[in-house]
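User: I'm writing a short methods note and want a consistent example. For Glutaredoxin, I'll paste the sequence; you return only the structure tokens, no commentary, since I'll be parsing the reply automatically.
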Amino acid sequence: MSDNSGNTNERISQIVGDNDVVLFMKGTPLFPQCGFSNRAVSILDHCKVQFESVDVLQDMEVRQGIKAYSDWPTIPQLYVKGEFVGGSDIMMEMYEAGELQQMLDEKQVAKAE
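Assistant:
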């Protein structure tokens, strides 16, 4: 297997940089493929923000690359304005404490239609 980690990192950087809110997840927002991804989508829906999702099951390079990119071993992973926030457990804790909504508001993230 050739080493595409540089390319993959660039692709991930581009995705993270081009979107205010990005969720790297298993499946899609309509059809999450794991409970953690489902929970992450639900939290973002409750926060009423627009977000881009990347289905890591469709792209093995990104699936592995995102773990190295964030130095975080699990998926889903949430990025807000280029900053790694965390996985579904951290999202849940922040959401319940009101911190996630506050961060999204402070960073002036686009609201969902």
